Amino acid sequence: MTNTDSGTAPKVVDFPLRTPGEPFPPPRYEEYRRRPGLVLTHLPAGGRVWLVTRHEEARAVLTDKRISSDPSRAGFPHISDTIGVPRQEQIPGWFVGLDSPEHDRFRKALIPEFTVRRVRTMRPAIERTVDERIDAMLAAGDSADLVTDFALPIPSLVISSLLGVPPVDRAFFESRTRTLVDIRNSTEQQRDTAAKELLRYINRLIGIKQHWPGDDLVSRLLAGGAITPQEMTGVLMLLLIAGHETTANNIALGVVSLLLNPEWIGDERAVEETLRFHSVADLVSLRVAVEDVEIGGQLIRAGEGIIPLAAAANHDPEAFACPHAFDPGRTERHHVAFGYGVHQCLGQNLVRAEMEIAYRRLFERIPKLELAVPVEELPLKHDGVLCGLHALPVRW
């Protein structure tokens, strides 16, 4: 066991914010995996935290009952005052910041909205949304920015429809979400303002659905009664952010991977490999030990923060053969792109459907699609908690 009280202090590394020009996952993750125990770093807002970079240990952290998701516990790793997991008194209903059994009540109410069967009924509407975006691109000429014109609108329109949000309000919550996940370019004040504006909008939406219910998730949850209207604010804010930003990043990055590896175009397995290969939600799973616990031979004391790095775990050669190769034909399907355990992303069936339909229809309808700039010139996001592209210029 590696014990921090043994007299040999572990080397402290820089917090893993991405830097311009650096590939993702960053090469330093490989070096971290080779170290005994875990890796110690300091949060941008202060306080130390353990980084978990190996696949087996990431899954252990995400399932150990001695490790909590509750941000109100002492030592919980807050990336900053406005980036991370809010406490319930800040945003009631932000259920990913709850442990069982409190967390289970929210998940039980929401799971029926995201089952394979429910998502199957949504597929025709998703296909119409995708085709409408392709129609608009084709009508505009022979080039486009696939982030602005395709990857962002699709999940935004889908989640808007699911929640009963008017499509005309899509730009509003997209812009607020972009501010909330931007670490480098938005200030604490800007992120705080964006969160308050989004919460005010959500509260108005809930009020409307209480008086005029419709065929949407918000109306069904209100009718079910398991989640209070106050708690609904956090639930909906979480679904809005998770429902479009991560999916948009996956769609755009997956298109790039398929253009670079055209032999996989049309193969549905490309969806699962895109999720593993790009691991856009690298810094999302924040945890704290509530008891002393050993992970990977490292003694973690109660009150110490832990962050399993999804991209590092999903590129662990002990879990995935040739992990840096984009290979949809691989047999290993146990990635942690959606997390693991009780907090595993409940919208994963919807994300997979959106990605599969987006890739299939895009390449069927625009078979001559190609990058308009060299791949090394694509503007990778290095300023947020999610990996992705700021723009994806293409032509046909």
Describe the structure.
The protein is of the alpha+beta class and 396 residues long. The protein has a single domain, classed as Cytochrome p450. 44% of the residues lie in helices and 9% in strands. The protein is built from 13 helices and eleven strands. It has helices at 28-34, 55-63, 102-110, 116-140, 146-151, 153-163, 170-180, 188-211, 217-224, 229-260, 269-278, 310-314, 348-365, and strands at residues 12-13, 39-42, 48-52, 67-68, 143-145, 287-289, 293-295, 298-300, 305-308, 370-371, 393-395. Strands 1-2-3-9-6-4 form a six-stranded mixed sheet. The mean pLDDT is 90.
| CATH hierarchy: architecture | Orthogonal Bundle
- Strand order of the main beta sheet, please? 1-2-3-9-6-4
**CATH class term:** Mainly Alpha
Distance between the termini: 57 Å
- SSE string, helix = H, strand = E? EHEEHEHHEHHHHHHHEEEEHHEE
Number of strands: 11
Strand content: 5-15%
